[in-house]
Amino acid sequence: MALGLGLLIGALLGLLGGGGSILAVPGLVYGVGLPLAEAVPTSLLVVGVSSAAAVLPRLRQVQWRLAAIFGATGAAAAFAGTAINRLLDPSLVLLGFAAVMVAAALRMLRSSDDVGGSCALPGGGVNWRSCLPKAAASGVVVGFLTGLFGVGGGFLIVPALTVLLGLPMATAAATSLVVIVLNSAAAFTAHLGTATISPAVAVAFTAAAVLGSLVAARIAPRLPGRRLRRWFAYLVLAVAGYVTLQASTALLR
Q1: pTM for the structure as a whole
Q2: What total number of domains does the chain contain?
C-alpha cells in the first residue's frame, strides 16, 4: 500500500508541480493505517524528498528569488502550524484537512492557464515593490498549512505565482516544488523530538514517490495539464468526503 500510494503522489507532484501531496496524509492514515501523529511527519518527509527529485529536471525554470521569499516567510509559519497541530484533537485536524481539500479541489476546477496578474510588468518581469507583500503573505499561509496538516501547499503556491505575479505555468510549477521542499523541511524539523516514524513505511513511500515524480516530470510537458487538474480535483473531492465521514464518526464515538 505504501509503495502504491507513493507512486501515485510522486506522479502527481511531477505532473502538476504540487497538489499531489494533499493525498499523502489521508493515504497514510486510512490506506497504510498510521496514526495522524505519525502520518504528518512521514508525509512531510515523503513530500519534501519527492519534490526535490521532481524539481531536478526543471532547475533552469525556477524563479529562485521568489522561492527564497516564499521559503523564508513559510518556514517560521510552518513551526507555528506544527505547534497548533499538537494542541488539537486528531479528528478535528482531519476535518480541517478535509475542508482544505475541498477548497483546493474547487480552485482547481475553476482554474485556467491564464497568467499575468497585477504584479506582472508588460515586459514579462515582476513589479517587486507591489508584489513583495503579496508573495510574503502567500508564503505565510502556505507554510502554516504545511506545518498544521503536513501538506506541501502546491495547490496554493502555483496560483499565487501565476495569478499574482504573472509567472508562466512551467516556471510557477518548478518554483512551487522548491518552496515545497523548504516548507516541508522546516515543518519536519519542528516535529523532530516528538514524532515517531516507521522506517519501513517511510522508505517505501519515499522511494516510490521519488521514482514516480522523476518519471512524471519528464512526460508532463506532453500531457494536457488542464484536463489532468480537473480529474485530480474530482479525486480530491472524493477523498475529502471519505475523510469527513471517518473523522466525524470518530468524534461522535
Answers
A1: 0.78
A2: 1
